[in-house]
UniProtKB/TrEMBL annotation:
Protein name: Exopolysaccharide biosynthesis polyprenyl glycosylphosphotransferase
A Pfam family matched in the record: Bac_transf
TM annotation in the entry: 146-170
InterPro entries from the UniProt entry: Bact_transf, EPS_sugar_tfrase
Keywords (A to Z) from UniProt: Membrane, Transferase, Transmembrane, Transmembrane helix
Lineage of producing organism: Bacteria, Pseudomonadati, Pseudomonadota, Gammaproteobacteria, Alteromonadales
UniProt cross-references to NCBIfam families, sorted A to Z: EPS_sugtrans (TIGR03025)
């Protein structure tokens, strides 16, 4: 990705009655999402910050090129446009009139990347609650709850033999309880006890809370298998029926880690605007990891899920989860 910045010029000569006519315009958003170059307009003091964030993208970005004359079939994104001058905002309006595809930078990147670039978020992104159907539409919430209940009951019946075998295997391999209960933070920052099949030694946290890591030596042999196949999550059916969790949503985290992560990740607690899930977009889109950088990436998918939630997206996540279970691609 190449980042180009241009000096801002005065645009007093740009009038609404400009004689220029659009030569062509995008016929679909898909065309806009495949452009090799996009143009971004933002306050001057944010240019370097945007350049640092987007340097790994596979497409080029030109920042604040107000000399651009051919605007048809250009992708033009704006960031913190309220801080732009009247003339600069007029340029963006004119771009729309002349056939450019114009929209907020974060929204465009959402569609193109499949996740939300959380480092570009500011408070205004979250203040338009009606844009988040999962938060504002009662019908969506009721439908999701109904699906959770029906899916949980069905899963409980189908998975009962697997659960019984798992309980026996855990008991045979290592001393300690079959189930593991742990305080997690859920919707509206309320804590609840998540229930799982125990996959670690019973003394796994005798010296305090620790991040789980890949090839964690605290994990038992049975635990390693049930974690990879997500069988350890089956008891969370109880959490779903209790209303603490949903089938699909951001994974619930422990408060001790949340306090650490919210110092590093912008708006980390916004994930608690919805119920946590047994599976989620982050779990099926990003490989296992236990660092702050991994948490940032998972947060990108969680915010995207909350903003773009739909029943169809839930179905796609569940289908990907089935693939994970069948082929042991879990953590």
């Amino acid at each position: 990705m190449n980042l180009v910045t241009r000096e801002i010029v005065e645009l007093d000569d740009v009038e609404v009655s400009s004689p220029f006519k659009p030569i062509r315009s995008f016929k679909s958003k898909q065309q806009a999402l495949t452009q090799s170059t996009i143009y971004v307009y933002c306050p001057t003091e944010r240019e370097l910050e945007i350049g640092t964030i987007v340097e790994d993208y596979s497409f080029d970005i030109v920042v604040n090129d107000y000399d651009l004359e051919e605007l048809s079939c250009k992708v033009i994104c704006h960031f913190e446009s309220a801080k732009l001058s009247k003339e600069q905002r007029k340029f963006l309006v004119k771009a729309t009139e002349l056939g450019a595809w114009v929209e907020p930078l974060v929204s465009y990147l959402d569609e193109r990347l499949g996740y939300t670039e959380v480092r570009l978020l500011h408070s205004g992104y979250f203040l338009h609650q009606k844009a988040f159907s999962i938060l504002s539409t009662r019908r969506t919430q009721l439908a999701k709850r109904l699906i959770d209940i029906l899916a949980s009951i069905t899963l409980a019946i189908v998975a009962l033999p697997v659960g019984l075998i798992t309980m026996l295997a855990i008991k045979i391999e290592s001393p300690g309880p079959v189930f593991y209960r742990q305080r997690r933070t859920g919707q509206y920052n309320r804590e609840f006890e998540v229930i799982k099949f125990r996959s670690m030694r019973s003394d796994a946290e005798k010296s305090g809370a620790k991040w789980a890591v890949k090839n964690d030596e605290r994990v038992t042999r049975v635990g390693n298998f049930i974690r990879k196949t997500r069988i350890d999550e089956l008891p969370q059916i109880i959490n779903i029926l209790n209303g603490d969790m949903s089938i699909v949503g951001p994974r619930p985290e422990r408060e001790v880690f949340i306090a650490e992560l919210e110092r590093e990740i912008p708006y980390y607690r916004f994930r608690h605007a919805v119920k946590p899930g047994v599976t989620g977009l982050a779990q099926v889109s990003y490989p296992y990891g236990a660092s702050v950088e991994d948490a940032i990436w998972k947060h990108k998918y969680d915010i995207y899920y909350i903003k773009h939630h739909s029943s169809w997206l839930d179905v796609k996540i569940l289908l990907k989860t089935v693939k994970v279970v069948l082929f042991g691609m879990g953590r």
